[in-house]
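Fill-in record for Tetratricopeptide repeat protein.
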Amino acid sequence: MAEQLKEDLAAVIAEMEKTVAEFPENVMAQHHLGLVYMKAGRIEEAIACLRKAIELDPQSTESMINLGAIYFGQGQLKMAEDLNKKALSVSPRAAQAYANLGLIAQQNNELDIAIEHYQKAISIDATLATVWLNLTSVLTMKGDDERALEAAQKGLELDSESPLAHNNLAVALYFSERYAEAQKHMEKARELGYSVDPNFVASLQEKLA
């Protein structure tokens, strides 16, 4: 199955490369080839295509956001931040750009700024499950247990099979002193393949003893 997927992806890349070679000024062709390169792990080629797309169309919000995601993955947070801010200057209601800025602020331990960005993202698109999960983590770190629990419940509602959603809800329930419910979601997170923090497991078991 894995080999088949690789072959299929290689075929898609070959076809899209032909299109880009024939129409090098086509913004969407450059953008989509960049995304496929990302999926294939060909990062430098993905960067080149997304940069070209932005060069061809300075309004290409999606290219900016995706290029920012690559830089974030490389730890180049300032470049990622600049690209997402540029995307917002073009499309002020780009929810994913706000979500990404929240993640960057969280990485920089700027928790209040992260919360502000996450809240802005979900005010635009409340269906972004990952944003609710990230917001849960930051609110938990801030000790805002009530809001963390609300965010965790919303995240799980949007993605009931997410191991991280179950883990985050378990932690939020723990801090709300709802230990039996926390254990249920902790076990579900494990069942779904999440590596639950052993210290959290020990602390929860102590509370349940």
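KEY FINDING: The domain at 127-209 is CATH 1.25.40.10 (Serine Threonine Protein Phosphatase 5, Tetratricopeptide repeat).
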